[in-house]
TrEMBL record:
Organism superkingdom: Eukaryota
Similarity field: Belongs to the Nudix hydrolase family. TIRR subfamily.
Compartment(s) where it occurs, according to its Swiss-Prot or TrEMBL record: Nucleus
Chain's gene name: NUDT16L1
Main location: nucleus
Protein name as annotated: Tudor-interacting repair regulator protein
GO molecular function, one term: snoRNA binding
Keyword field: Nucleus, RNA-binding
Functional note: Key regulator of TP53BP1 required to stabilize TP53BP1 and regulate its recruitment to chromatin. In absence of DNA damage, interacts with the tandem Tudor-like domain of TP53BP1, masking the region that binds histone H4 dimethylated at 'Lys-20' (H4K20me2), thereby preventing TP53BP1 recruitment to chromatin and maintaining TP53BP1 localization to the nucleus.
PANTHER family: NUDIX T16 FAMILY MEMBER, TUDOR-INTERACTING REPAIR REGULATOR PROTEIN
Gene source species: Sapajus apella
Tagged with keyword Zinc-finger: no
Complex and partners: Homodimer. Interacts with TP53BP1 (via the Tudor-like domain); interaction is abolished following DNA damage and TP53BP1 phosphorylation by ATM. Interacts (via the cytoplasmic part) with SDC4. Interacts with TGFB1I1 and PXN.
A Gene Ontology cellular-component term: nucleus
Amino acid sequence: MLLSGSGGDGVSAKMSTAAVPELKQISRVEAMRLGPGWSHSCHAMLYAANPGQLFGRIPMRFSVLMQMRFDGLLGFPGGFVDRRFWSLEDGLNRVLGLGLGCLRLTEADYLSSHLTEGPHRVVAHLYARQLTLEQLHAVEISAVHSRDHGLEVLGLVRVPLYTQKDRVGGFPNFLSNAFVSTAKCQLLFALKVLNMMPEEKLAEALAAATEKQKKALEKLLPASS
């Protein structure tokens, strides 16, 4: 299952073999009712329709921004919000100002909340805003001059939302990278619910990425006697 409670039973079943961590989706209202034992993380997915073609023949479809973090993991711009002092949006915008430098999101951009599994009780909120390609590029330029660039944020990257003829190049290869916490699940969830990629293509990319990682691991392990 990709995301329990997401209403996406079809894609969840197809992705069950791709080892995507299960997350429980809750409403914003439910998230706000959680007690002080829960931490809140807020992240933003910025994207734009992209009419371009790679090599003049592979449709780009959309450009989605993620970032390389200080720990070598991929994630969305954002971070933890201290609910004692900030609303979700104010806290998110404060963090975005440090990493991007030129953007403010509102409650209208809210997309989802998911509970994470593990020793730390965290509810992960995701916001999404569609920009024009020109606006997206302006964000990329601004990010280079932000306070956290080269420190906590090592650079923005665009997610390749296409698969090349070898069935690995592009999105499957991207999914083979290491992601922080819920970022990979949030990416897949957003691409599905925002109708940015057909669910069968998501499943195919996940399967290809999983197979690639499996083969890479087998090469590292010594041959059995």
